[in-house]
Specification:
CATH topology of the largest domain: Alpha-Beta Plaits
CATH class of the largest domain: Alpha Beta
Strand order of the largest sheet: 1-3-2-8-5-7-6-4
Helix content: 25-40%
Radius of gyration: 17 Å
Strand content: 35-45%
Largest sheet: 8 strands, antiparallel, barrel
Number of domains: 2
């Protein structure tokens, strides 16, 4: 399984039109639309599109289609910028399954130090069972493009629940994983709202 996370930077006030166009374009294109999220807290005017592909060849074909399009994701006239990253899921992570999991989603991305992926995967494999027993994680994945990075997606009922669960995980000593020494200071967190077309909602 290959995941693709497209980050679409859109013009001010165009989210509703962009989401409608994204839904139609993804239905006509390749891959499986898994999530579509609008940034609410963090850098704004961004839409994240998460898709799944059976293999790298299928993702490459769809990426070529998008890159050659005069209107990527059907909303070229609304786009200020676009970035498309391929990801592989962490080992033994269940595949992303659409469903109703939360009113808000947190997308976190960390840039790793060189050589940090293998020890990070090992530390997360050790820590995730206890953390996921506390609350659901949608996916943890590492990029196949650009700087070594990991991204993970968490659903919550609201910001109050998020704060409470994260505090409990730290107090119980089950989070964060014992791999923080491999993180660079470049860490990003965005609170997102699922768009009406999002299979994750």
């Amino acid at each position: 399984m290959i995941y693709e996370l497209a980050t679409l930077t859109i013009t001010v006030g165009s989210a509703a039109r962009a989401v409608a166009a994204i839904g139609a374009d993804c239905a006509a294109g390749g891959g499986r639309l898994l999530g579509c999220f609008i940034a609410e807290i963090g850098a704004l005017n961004r839409i994240f599109v998460l898709r799944g592909f059976a293999d790298e060849a299928a993702q490459a074909r769809e990426r070529e289609r998008v890159l050659r399009s005069a209107s990527p994701f059907g909303c070229g006239d609304l786009l200020a910028a676009i970035a498309i990253d391929r990801y592989r899921p962490f080992p033994d992570i269940p595949p992303v399954e659409p469903g109703a999991y939360g009113a808000i989603y947190e997308l976190r991305s960390y840039v790793l130090k060189i050589g940090g992926l293998t020890p990070t995967l090992a530390a997360w494999a050790e820590a995730l069972p206890a953390r996921m027993a506390l609350s659901r994680m949608i996916v943890a994945m590492y990029t196949l493009d650009g700087a070594p990075r990991i991204s993970h997606l968490w659903p919550y009922a609201d910001l109050t629940q998020r704060a409470a669960l994260r505090t409990e995980a730290v107090q119980r000593g089950i989070w964060p994983p014992k791999s923080t020494g491999w993180l660079t200071p470049e860490m990003h967190s965005t609170i997102c709202l699922p768009a009406d077309i999002s299979p994750l909602h």
